[in-house]
Amino acid sequence: MTRRSRAHQSTPGNEKAILEAALTLAVTAGYEGTTMAEVARLSGLPVGSVYWHFNNKEQLFAELIEYCFEQWKADHTGPTNRDLLRRSIAGSAGGSVDPENRAEAFWILALLFALEKRLAGNLAREKYLDVRKEMFELMVQRVEPQVPASVLAVDPAFGRKMVVLGRALTDGFYIAASAGDEIDFMEFADLSATAVEALIQRKAAEIEGNLDAADAES
Amino acid sequence: MTRRSRAHQSTPGNEKAILEAALTLAVTAGYEGTTMAEVARLSGLPVGSVYWHFNNKEQLFAELIEYCFEQWKADHTGPTNRDLLRRSIAGSAGGSVDPENRAEAFWILALLFALEKRLAGNLAREKYLDVRKEMFELMVQRVEPQVPASVLAVDPAFGRKMVVLGRALTDGFYIAASAGDEIDFMEFADLSATAVEALIQRKAAEIEGNLDAADAES
DNA sequence: GTCTATAACTAGATAGAC
DNA sequence: GTCTATCTAGTTATAGAC
User: Fold this and answer.
1) Most B CBs within 10 Å: which of A92, A109, A117, A174, as the mutation test of the B interface?
2) 3-state secondary structure string, chain B?
3) pLDDT tens for each residue of A67-109
4) Cβ of residue B33 near strand D, that is under 7 Å?
5) Does A144 touch chain B if contact means CB atoms closer than 8 Å?
């Protein structure tokens, strides 16, 4: 066999080094732009070793996505951070500039795989699409409690909609960071949170108004 | 000389065919993923001809960005479309799916160049960053008149902030489209427009309140 | 498990006939 | 201006010594 059989034990030393190297490179070079030779060089191992640990480039990236997602989950599911959106957008500020920022590197990696549609059928991209769905559900679980029950009663999908909006904003600000826009990301993190909040309130008020109208009619 | 000297005359037949081929491929394959051989094949010309018209891949893409931007400007500066943000986001729906959708292909191309930071110094990426700035200013000119004078008096940059937010949203929904999210883009186009609108109203109300307070004090 | 050498292939780019 | 043949360098991936 040309491949280790470990399934899900915690990533051992050299494998982790390879994944970290791949991540560092991928964040600035993308999928095609990252070469196995460079990954090997940066990890301090020869190419042969990289191919001993991972079947091929595709699989290396598929595992990289999983590896990053675990880190991201650990960082973003703690009980401390109450404001997911604000935190995510604020994180975009340095995320794309500093290749060492692992917690946020995942998001950049994700954007790359979202955009590179040529990778249809590619193991890594399929893996990403799975992860994207899982991440979405995690966010829904955290956002839904913040939506008033009266709103959810009328539009049960409203919480999910706010997550879609929040994710679009987060993605958008990562793009802005990648493009080097000189904006105050903290300010926009607040502004974005406020905008979503305003949308929820407006919806609640609208429903309230309808209820009043209905009450008045009866 | 190995290169035509036309500077800014309207793109002649074969050059246009090459640019169109490059665009179609780039939208799904990205910069690295698009090969000169494929561009040649799709344009119906041999590789040699492509290199006669364009010095190299870098310059081909730099001109592609300019070429697309001109089209985008023509599509998005007419007097008809009053709601820029709503229109942009709604456009993202099909933009990433149909490689023939030229008007929106530009935005995908833009995202690719925004993310591919490895291309630092690359002519095409530099060109894109210029275009990004110009596009921003065009949007500011169209959004600023919609912001109440009272708000601009207190925060002259508020219009620009709304454009930053709007662009982030647009970028974000293009990502969603690229990832194949099954969402109702029209609905989110409306929701996004409403969110920005709500933010402006909230700001205006806040300022109004302060003015009243100031009036009461005097 | 690690490392070297190299095979098999594909990329961007050019030379030069027409 | 167009097209073919080809060069060079770099890519993924493997074979096989250690």
Assistant:
1) A117
2) CCCCCCCCCCCCHHHHHHHHHHHHHHHHHHHHHCCHHHHHHHHCCCHHHHHHHCCCHHHHHHHHHHHHHHHHHHHHCCCCCCCHHHHHHHHHHHHCCCCCCHHHHHHHHHHHHHHCHHHCCCHHHHHHHHHHHHHHHHHHHHHHHHCCHHHHHHCCCHHHHHHHHHHHHHHHHHHHHHCCCCCCHHHHHHHHHHHHHHHHHHHHHHHHHHHHHHHHHC
3) 999 988 887 776 555 688 888 888 887 655 566 677 678 888 9
4) no
5) no
